[in-house]
Please model this.
Amino acid sequence: MKKDLYQNICEETIFASIYNKYAQTLHDFLYYRYGDRLNPGDKAQDAFTKLWENCKKVTPDKAKSFLYTTANNLMLNEVKHQKVVLKYQTESPKGYTNENPEFLLEKDQYYKKYQAALSKLTEEQRTAFMMNKVEGKKHAEIAELLGVTRKVVEYRIYSAFDQLKKELENFKVK
Amino acid sequence: MLYMQRAELMDKDKLTQKWLLDDLNVEEAKAFEALEEASFYKDIVEGASQFKASNYSKMDDFETFKKRMEASETPVQKLHWTTPLLRIASVIFIAFGAYYFFLSDNLLTVQTKVAEKTTIELPDTSKVILNAGSEVAYDEKEWASNRKIELKGEAFFDVAKGAKFEVFTEKGTVTVLGTEFNVKQRGSYFEVACFEGIVRVTSGNETKILKVGDNFRLFNGEVISGKHTFESPKWTNNVSHFNRIAVSEVFAEFERQYGIALTLENVDTEQLFTGSFMHDNLENALLAISEPLGLDYEIINTDTVRLSMSGK
Model:
């Protein structure tokens, strides 16, 4: 581990490993937090480009926070207060072929409502909830990414769920 | 037997919370499954997967990223060109809805970032002072015959006398013949203030003529005409002033001027705010907006400040 400090991330193999390690998670984080309209993929790319340009100045252990800070700043420079929208898949991953139209319609309504409910969550609630439940990230790791304590992350996951529960109330099966 | 009973007696909310945080022992897990709402709750968590980020898009693998970096010989230069081009594309796209024009490829674009202001001189000596987080685009070559400029954000215009001068924003158009006026368009908020001469504002079906001291405001579809009492917009003197404006816009402008993120806790973003904050002293500025609204502020780090309802 000590070797880390003296490694130059300008070296391609090292930069490549950093890229492979953080790229998709950074993208996912930005997507959950800011939605699809502000080009999370582009911002993630730009953050890596900036890291590349500054490779002499950033040590491997600082690369992650550099990437997240840069990406968040790029986001904040965009038009603010746009409603955050996450897209959902319309086909069922389990590949049911014998669903009746009524069931499909209800499923679609459920996901539309779900989408709206996700938009209503705060950035922090949505990010914590999605990173934990969809990406399987542990509370401690999410806490590090959001710059808060683990307890706060747990609180946000619970608040997010509470909101979603209320919004989706009508879809509860009697 | 004893453990089973204890788990069943646990408060339903507490049990749900433990389930949500993956903190159940065997008995608690059984108790959770026995809850009436268990399948509803499980569906919610499963449903989240339909919104998985990697279904929306995936990052390129490293080789592709590398090729892209190598393709740009002088990365620094290339990067600066890409971003403005992307922005021009979005300004025109937004404008498309209402204003189908401006198809010249030779648009000169000037942007300001967060916490940045700049003054531009147009080819006819007209001046534009651009506020933070804003952008203008115009055709330099055609300027003499066609004074059309697109604005996203906020700018103050000091227009030299001459042919018709038009400012196009997503929410409305301003036409003048040689005068001083301020145009602000942020999200669904559109405001024009006239400081000298006469200005004509068109937005949707509304057209209004503004003289010195007049003010036109459109927010969420509602038009308010009024007066202002300043000789020039306050922000050009590094103060942002608001007169009965929703605090969400106040906070947005604050973030733009200081380049920080404001995290809100229990704050009613629909209240109206009248007052101002300066651009060059963060603490004073925070006091200026938090005191009147009964809020506490906490500086979390160099990029983040938390505002919350005080007296909890």
The CA atoms of residues 265 and 308 of chain B lie 5 Å apart.
